[in-house]
Amino acid sequence: MHPHTLFAAIDLGSNSFRLEIGHLDAGHLRRVEYIKETVRQGNGLDDERNLTVEAMQRGWDCLARFGERICGFKARQVRAVATQTLREARNREVFLEKAKAILGFPIEVITGREEARLIYLGVSHLLPQSDERRLVIDIGGRSTELILGQHAEAKALESYRVGSVGWSMKYFADGLWTNASFKAAEIAAKAVLDEAQTIYTRDSWDTCYGSSGTVGAVADVLTLAGWPPGIVNREGLDWLKDKLLKAQKSDNLRIEGVKEDRKPVIGGGLAVLRALFDLLQINQMFAAQGALRHGALYDLLDRESPQTDVRSNMIEWLTHRFGVDMAQAERVSHTAQCLLSPLIQSTDKDYTERHLRKVHWASHLHEVGMHIAHSDYYKHGAYILDNTDLPGFTIDELHRLSQLVLGHRGKLRKLEAELHNPLFVQQLMALRLAVIFCHARRDPDISSVQLRCDVMRRNARLSFQSTWTEQWPQSAHLLREEAEAWQKIGWNLHMEVL
Questions:
Q1: Using alpha carbons only, what angle is made at residue 210 by residues 208 and 212, rounded to the nearest 5 degrees?
Q2: Do the domains at 6-110+295-299 and 127-288 have one common CATH topology?
Q3: Cα–Cα distance between 443 and 425 in angstroms, integer?
Q4: Residue 345, burial from CB neighbour count under 10 angstroms (0-12, 13-18, 19+)
């Protein structure tokens, strides 16, 4: 990797969108540019949990500006992640389809625990090396992440649906700060966060850090008011609450360090922060420099190699957890990749390796449901993947894997919604054929086998030597059945004997 190669991370938060650009220097990412724009998508969700057109347009406009800045970057240099608002939005695909086209790069909607993992990754990389046990808190616009960790390893990850934008809209909707509204907001926050007391006990951590958003804003205000730099304590929170109560509403607030875009949501954020101080017995919190976007950048670098890609580690963990036959998994993976590789017509080595890796993961997981029951095990496997939080994976990535597992055998009509994607079709066909070739649980002879696929014409051709069918009659029979399965959904999988 060239030391001056630039990498970019985009955080599509509920309150702000952020772009961080950096390059690798002596094992650390050095900032080249940082841009933050207040988009406030979090207050653009209507009663039906749909993003309004106005909220989507604000997001698209911001991403157009970000897209211009990172124009020319390659896919491997960019990671864009979306958090709670787009996790909630029922019409998120409407926003994402246009957003991806505008930005020019994929946008990943990540789970709450994956958000927490990336936050800790970013915070830990920007802290000095230490043996201290850390509690990291990030109060965002519509969610709050809590992490226990030591060194670079997160040991407990949780995400709660409480944040500065959501709480400001709900408990300070009229724009007024009163003792009654603060009391109601803090009680409600404690009700949501109550279970955190059993996970993040006071004896489980040594030092508390706050990341980004609310904590950063509060720390800046307290520092300018004469409190110790970069430290948030109970006395400071009481002082800030008193200032808000005296101002009564955001338009009247005159405190150095409170930016205009932060004023409408500082009440909700402060209420959540005060609730956490009480629940988790926090006396002081240090403002951390690292955040979600930094974690996304470091994770992007880790994905350069299967050995450091946390997703590969999670696949391995899941296969061991559910007792997968690893010899068979490797057999199917090797066969599927041999069939798929010639179909990926790209000169981009990284692109090819990414998609081969996905069929490799699906091959390792295709029998994961057998731990539950042999009957319809592929359905159980798909359910596991659709309902599991695996660190490193986005919601869409896990769903794509679940659909490959679901479709690796049985009728294809159940996957009609996915079959418009050419690459998915190629991956699925390679996986299904690999499972057939490996049905006897021994290494298959596919040296003379070749798969060609024309997705646009819904036509595929599998060719092999005439002696192959004589040597492997059972496999030949299963392949004829496979051709019939594809024919039922309007595809022609032709068996060509050479």
A1: 165
A2: yes
A3: 24
A4: exposed
Tokens coding 330: 């490797």
213 — pLDDT class (breaks 50, 70, 90): confident
Question: CA-to-CA distance for 328 and 391, rounded, in angstroms?
Answer: 25
Is the Cβ–Cβ distance between 429 and 451 less than 8 Å?
A: yes
- The answer to whether the beta carbons of residues 299 and 309 sit under 8 Å apart is no
For strands 231-233 and 153-160, give the pairing: unpaired
With a cut of 80, say whether residue 304 has pLDDT above it. Answer: no
Helix (H, G, I), strand (E, B) or coil at 203: helix
Phi and psi for 387 in degrees, rounded to 5? Answer: -125, 25
Mean pLDDT in residue range 347-363:
86
Tell me the C-alpha distance between 92 and 96, whole Å. 6
Other CB atoms within 10 Å distance of the CB of residue 210? 26
Asked if residues 224 and 257 have their Cβ atoms less than 8 Å apart, the reply is yes
- pLDDT tens digits for range 182-196: 999 999 999 999 999
Apex CA 263: angle with CA 258 and CA 266, to 5°? 90
Are 156 and 280 spatial neighbours (Cβ–Cβ below 8 Å)?
Answer: no
Could you write out the three-class secondary structure of 10-62? Answer: EEECCCEEEEEEEEEECCEEEEEEEEEEECCHHHHECCCCCECHHHHHHHHHH
- Amino acid in the structure at residue 430: A
Per-residue confidence at 302, pLDDT binned at 50, 70, 90? confident
**6-110+295-299 belongs to which homologous superfamily?**
ATPase, nucleotide binding domain (3.30.420.40)
pLDDT at 347: 66
Distance CA 245, CA 274 (A): 15
Phi and psi at 89, nearest 5°, equal -60, 125
Nearest CA-CA partner of 299 in 8, 16, 62? 8
* Winning range, highest mean pLDDT, from 117-131, 388-402, 456-470: 117-131
* Span 42-63, pLDDT tens digits: 889 999 999 999 999 999 999 9
> β-strands 284-288, 207-211: how paired?
parallel
Tokens of 460: 């595929």
Which fold does the domain 305-446 belong to in CATH? Hypothetical protein af1432 (1.10.3210)
- The answer to whether 398 and 386 are in contact (CB under 8 A) is yes
Q: Check: CATH 3.40.50.11690 for 127-288? A: no
Residues shown for the chain: 498
Asked whether the predicted pLDDT for residue 3 surpasses 60, the reply is no
Tell me the DSSP string of 97-115.
Answer: HHHHHHHSS-EEE--HHHH
The DSSP call for residue 454 is E
Domain limits of the chain?
A: 6-110+295-299, 127-288, 305-446
